[in-house]
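Posted in: Protein Modeling Q&A

I'm a second-year student putting together a small comparison for a lab meeting, and my supervisor asked me to include a predicted structure for Lipoprotein. I've never done this before, so apologies if this is the wrong subforum. The sequence is pasted below exactly as I got it from our records. If anyone can share the structure token output, I'd also love a short note on what stands out.
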Amino acid sequence: MRWAVAVSALLLALFTSGCGLIGSTSAVQQGDCLKKSGDDGFDKVSCSSSDAGFVVLDRAGSGKAHERCVDVAGTEYVYNDKGSGSICVGVKGADPAHAANAAQKGDCLTDTAGSTVQKVDCTDRTAVYRVLARPDATEFMTDMACNNVTGTQSTYSYLLKAKKGMGAFGTGIVFCLIAKDSDPTRTIDNAKQGDCLHKSGANDLTVTSCTSSDADYKLLATMTSETMCTSIKGSIATFDYQLPGSIPKALCLGSAH
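Accepted answer (user: helix_wrangler)
Welcome! Here is the predicted structure, written out as tokens:
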């Protein structure tokens, strides 16, 4: 079995010298509205204009409330403002409180396979995953960012991607996720030799007490291939899985009783 791998939200960040904004970028303030200007820029426009599709959410940098725009909820585009920090730009009319990058540890997200991933209340019917951690990451090897986060079943990358300049490699955050109602202490990556396992779904096993009536198997050994389990005495079944950013594993299983 393979857990879902990362879905990357590659959010276009424009690292320029402030060009593309009308006049000096120092005049652009939180709440100002913008329209796209070509591929690499924005123009400041009235918020009542029909083509005002974006809004300045905040400024980030040293001495600001946030040092990075990726931590400003709802940011999708970033401008580097000639040493005066960064201008964080989001979609006009969108609710930053529900932006994916607003989610912190313990918060829930909608299905990452969807076109729009949002932070929602964990009791909401659209909530699918719970956030275990949100480490910093680049666009390279995003899965590996969650290697040491126990219970991770899936990852979701929220990356700011630069088109040119020193920010040419996207940076951002990776969400280490677990199914919202799952217990991270009982996921398969917690299993050690001698532990008992319960078949909790067609393609899932969870750790359980060996004295429990729902114990179906005992973990005899962990291998890199299920064919290696044939040499393990008492092995009656195998279970293959691969966590995000890790090598595949094969569990050699014996009877729990």
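A couple of things worth pointing out for your meeting: The two ends are 25 Å apart (CA to CA). Residues 7-179 form one domain.
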